[in-house]
Amino acid sequence: MGRTIAVSGSASGIGKTLAELLRKQGDEVVGVDLRDAEVCADLSTAEGRIQAVAEVLERSGGALDGAVACAGVTGPTPLTVQVNYFGAVALLDGLRPALAAAEAPRAAVVGSISGTQPVDDAVLRACLEGDEPAALAAADRVLAAKRGNRLYPSSKSALAQWLRRVSVAPEWAGAGIPLNAVAPGVVRTPMSAPLFEDEAMFKIMNEAVPMPLNGYADPIVIAEALAWLVSPANSHMAGQVIYVDGGAEATLRGPSVF
């Protein structure tokens, strides 16, 4: 019997590849994206998040075997904080009761190696306090100070810390729902394409994310890891951020961090 799994960001990149993989395995996928998805909704807004949750619940009949928050954006813009953190958290929180109603529910998010890089403390703190207006105000200050490159790491670091906090709570682990993350290194997707096309950015990327094992990854590499995390085989992993990054995290942080 196939399972029913919601996947945000299903129209492109890692989300699209994951949706295709799950469907090949016989699962029913309820995709969520701005376009070309079963549920078309904008996860950067409160209204869009409510709509996304409501339509996924309607399509799943109130019971959901899995949910994966893949939707994300990059770049020096407050949208990064809105989608990567608040959109992902609202989607998973909203779908949690439907996951709890399933026999073997699983959930996962897409983090990033960037979550280990320097962040803006005010953005990070506001995210973890669930204060979106404060987070966006802090993001505006970051942009005004010409430190916009810290917004993406801030959003991904906040997401990883949220996951670590809630994954072992009664509402998640206590309800039998494993919640984990895959943190990719550099993945060849439409979102990362500009980095490969800009010679200066390409050099910066290679220095920031060294990947000694097999270099850059294709989306299927990340999709395979996510598919396992939301499979019935994963019965006891909770709160883990799995770096599928060609060895970047181990290279950058060294052996004393594990």
From TrEMBL:
<keyword id="KW-0560">Oxidoreductase</keyword>
<dbReference type="InterPro" id="IPR036291">
    <property type="entry name" value="NAD(P)-bd_dom_sf"/>
</dbReference>
<dbReference type="Pfam" id="PF13561">
    <property type="entry name" value="adh_short_C2"/>
</dbReference>
<dbReference type="InterPro" id="IPR002347">
    <property type="entry name" value="SDR_fam"/>
</dbReference>
<protein>
    <submittedName>
        <fullName>SDR family oxidoreductase</fullName>
    </submittedName>
</protein>
<comment type="similarity">
    <text>Belongs to the short-chain dehydrogenases/reductases (SDR) family.</text>
</comment>
